[in-house]
Amino acid sequence: MLTQMDRLTIYCVLCFITFCSLVLRSPNDTSLFALGGLIAAALGLWFELTNSPELEEEES
Q1: Assigned domain for 11 exists
Q2: Residue 60 above 80 pLDDT?
Q3: Domain total of the chain
Q4: In degrees to the nearest 10, what's the CA dihedral of 36, 42, 44, 45?
Q5: Which residue range is the domain that position 42 belongs to?
Q6: Do 36 and 19 meet the contact criterion of CB atoms below 8 Å apart?
Q7: What are φ and ψ of residue 51, in 5° steps?
Q8: Is residue 55 in a domain?
Q9: Is residue 14 part of a domain?
Q10: Is 56 within a domain?
Q11: At what angle do helices 32-50 and 4-24 cross, to 10 degrees?
Q12: Which residues, 6+ apart, have CB-to-CB distance to 39 below 8 Å?
């Protein structure tokens, strides 16, 4: 089972890889799969960060 930190690391790496693949290609070779991967990884990262009880501040 993956921990929350493992999942966050995977999503960050996927965002970085897909962002680099979009930036390093010429505008004529832009792929919809890379754009879809970037959106999916960003949504996964957002979902992990918003639903994490470990990252919430403790209320006194």
Answers
A1: yes
A2: no
A3: 1
A4: 160
A5: 6-49
A6: no
A7: -110, 40
A8: no
A9: yes
A10: no
A11: 150
A12: none
